[in-house]
Specification:
mainly alpha, 0% strand, 4 helices, 80 residues
Length: 80
Amino acid sequence: MLREIVRADRGDPLQWLYASAKANELLYVTLSNIGAFAPRDGGHLKLTGRDRKQLHLIRDVLAANFVAPPRLPDLARARA
């Protein structure tokens, strides 16, 4: 999936749309597979409005910089 994102021609609007969609898919797959986000009691994860804003910011940063994504510590310091 990452290879498809990196190889997309950023000058082609249709390929840019495809790469953006793949970046969102990659973010979804990554977050859905992180066990730390799953509640131990089997219930659903409760996200606050602040949590959602932060996730949207990180998604936007990763989508805008998918060729050279920021390091994880830099993403962690990003603020909405």
